[in-house]
């Protein structure tokens, strides 16, 4: 299975920070505006579940997982 790729739409991120809470190895927040920062756009397989959860709970729906 090829690694999942993470894409975000920072323009529509509402800086809720849920992604960084559930998948801190993959997502962080910008120090200034709080918007999402992708730390690892091809997270390891072991992170897949938490990254998928982050995409599911993002209140703005701006996280996409590309297979
Ligand atoms: S959970 Fe969604 S809205 Fe919140 S910081 Fe992450 S990407 Fe942005």
TrEMBL record:
Its job: Ferredoxins are iron-sulfur proteins that transfer electrons in a wide variety of metabolic reactions.
Parts of the chain that traverse the membrane: none
Pfam family, any one: Fer4_13
Database matches in InterPro entries: 3Fe4S_ferredoxin, Fe-S_cluster_ET
Protein's name according to its UniProt entry: Ferredoxin
Keyword Lipid biosynthesis found: no
Coiled coil: none
Cofactor: [3Fe-4S] cluster
Lineage: Bacteria, Bacillati, Actinomycetota, Actinomycetes, Pseudonocardiales
Keyword vocabulary terms for this entry: 3Fe-4S, Electron transport, Iron, Iron-sulfur, Metal-binding, Transport
